[in-house]
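Q:
Got a chain?
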Amino acid sequence: MKIGIIGGGSVGLLVARYLCEYHDVTVYVRNKAQKQKLNDHGLFLSSCTTPCRVNALLTSEFEQEDCVIVCVKQPEISAVLPLITHLNEQTPILFLQNGMSHIEFIQKITRPVYIGIVTHGALRKSDHIVMHTGKGVIKLANFSGNEEDLFDLVQKLNSEAFPFTTETNWHEILAKKLVVNAVINPLTAIFEVPNGEIIHNTYLMRLAKELCREACLVLQLDFMDQWNTVQSVAANTKENISSMLRDIKTNRKSENDAISGYLIKKSISDIPYTTFVYNSIKVLEIKKGIIE
């Protein structure tokens, strides 16, 4: 199957590296340097010495594909949408983002859309090397496509080394992932700590619980269930650096608006802890010149 992966970040490279074992994969990137590296050297998993060959093109060189997987972060979604309008009407499009702000954009797409979450840990070491920092799964649910088509697609994408599964409720899987991100991402970014500190530092844990409680209130999820999930994720990724902390450290715009900002926008009551971390991330982004 011809698969186009939009985004050469950690998730995009990880997905491309595993899928290229069985499929014809093209990675669409923004800069010529990354395109050159991928085409010249191949795509490496840091634990392997043998690269996987992928085709790399700039997003301006977008071609027809049998399936398209969108792996860019929330702030870049709007720039991707014009590419999709040139696809065949039957081409399935998979969105793999943190947060839920992208829903308002993809509602207008006429192609079959499937929404997913990634529970793997990934770290881009360079333009053509990615580290798999934690094994997980990609969960996909139908948004505007066909359930049977999704099942068939997952069968083609799934492998023992890199599993894909189907879920029945896209809103539920996004909401549950959003709770985890709304707790771990801002706290680790503000205090510059790895994920495990959320449960190892008593005072951070107190803040984490309140953030979890507020997110569950907005999203109408059970607090204890989600708090157990947050603790489990923090424990399983204890040495990992969150994507938001990595964004701040590397002077990139974070997904603050799509995570904490989304909760603030959707809440019908005050959520002070979430509002505080949202504003704190904005302060850091302004301080580092990421936003004005």
